[in-house]
């Protein structure tokens, strides 16, 4: 998968006021927009990552590096399998910590 462009959708409320949203819109290889919930952001080795789940299919989970380019945030695919495994492990540890706090 190549670096994605134009990944964020600005969400407005009914009065067209900017609204905080944990939903982003990603475009698939055919240019079709798909909405994803940001279920977690985490930092690992000074790199920020976003973990997303499909709004319509919560079993579809994607993990991206969060990069800043020209004052905009861009999601970038993780090509390195070891890096991806480290992010998954860090996320699982985060979930375990939340479970023990409850």
Characterize the structure shown.
- The chain has one helix at residues 81-101; strands spanning 23-27, 33-44, 47-54, 61-69, 72-76.
- The model is unreliable at 1-20 (pLDDT under 50).
- The chain is globular.
- With 102 residues, it is α+β, with helices and mostly antiparallel strands.
- The longest helix is centred in the C-terminal third of the chain and has 21 residues, at 81-101.
- A five-stranded antiparallel sheet has the order 1-2-3-4-5.
- The chain contains one helix and five strands.
Core attributes:
single chain; 102 residues; alpha+beta; five-stranded antiparallel β-sheet
Q: How is this structure best summarized?
A:
The chain is built from one helix and five strands, in the order βββββα. It is α+β, with helices and mostly antiparallel strands and 102 residues long.
Helix and strand layout, with pairings?
Blueprint: E1 23-27, E2 33-44, E3 47-54, E4 61-69, E5 72-76, H1 81-101
Antiparallel strand pairs: 1-2, 2-3, 3-4, 4-5
Instruction: Kindly estimate the percentage of residues that lie in beta strands according to DSSP.
Output: 35-45%
Rg calculated over all Cα atoms:
15 Å
- Helix coverage percent: 10-25%
Order of helices and strands: EEEEEH
Side-by-side strand order of the widest sheet = 1-2-3-4-5
Q: What would the principal axes of the Cα set say about the shape? A: globular
Secondary-structure content class: alpha+beta
How many DSSP E strands?
5
């Amino acid at each position: 998968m190549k670096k994605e462009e134009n990944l964020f959708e600005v969400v407005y409320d009914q009065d067209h006021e900017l609204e905080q949203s944990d939903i982003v819109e990603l475009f698939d290889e055919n240019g079709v927009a798909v909405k994803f919930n940001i279920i977690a952001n985490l930092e690992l080795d000074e790199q920020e990552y976003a973990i997303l789940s499909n709004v319509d299919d919560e079993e579809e989970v994607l993990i991206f590096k969060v990069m800043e380019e020209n004052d905009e945030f861009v999601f970038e695919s993780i090509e390195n399998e070891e890096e991806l495994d480290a992010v998954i492990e860090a996320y699982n540890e985060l979930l375990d910590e939340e479970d023990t706090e409850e």
